[in-house]
Design brief:
alpha+beta; about 30% helix; 2 helices; globular; 5-stranded antiparallel sheet; single chain
């Protein structure tokens, strides 16, 4: 993969993490999807996912993540550092 593409993807990932961290200082918060979009969040880029036993799929940008809920609501979460 060319270096320019890797740098571009890294910029998207860092921006997404920054948006999630800024909007979620307490570690758990529900926001509307439009709030993330207005802040510049790009839903196409993430570092990993986590599937719960109940089938819920959390999407993460490094240690900051989210879970899509009903009615364009998004649960913002922070992953625990001891998992790494």
């Amino acid at each position: 993969m060319p270096v320019a593409i890797v740098k571009r993807i890294d910029c998207f990932l860092k921006k997404n993490r920054e948006v999630l961290e800024k909007l979620n200082p307490t570690g758990k918060l529900v926001v509307n999807k439009s709030v993330l979009l207005r802040a510049g969040f790009n839903f196409q880029y993430h570092t990993h996912t986590y599937m719960t036993r109940r089938g819920q799929r959390y999407v993460f940008c490094y240690d900051q993540g989210y879970l899509g809920l009903e009615s364009d609501q998004i649960l913002l979460v922070r992953d625990l550092p001891e998992r790494y």
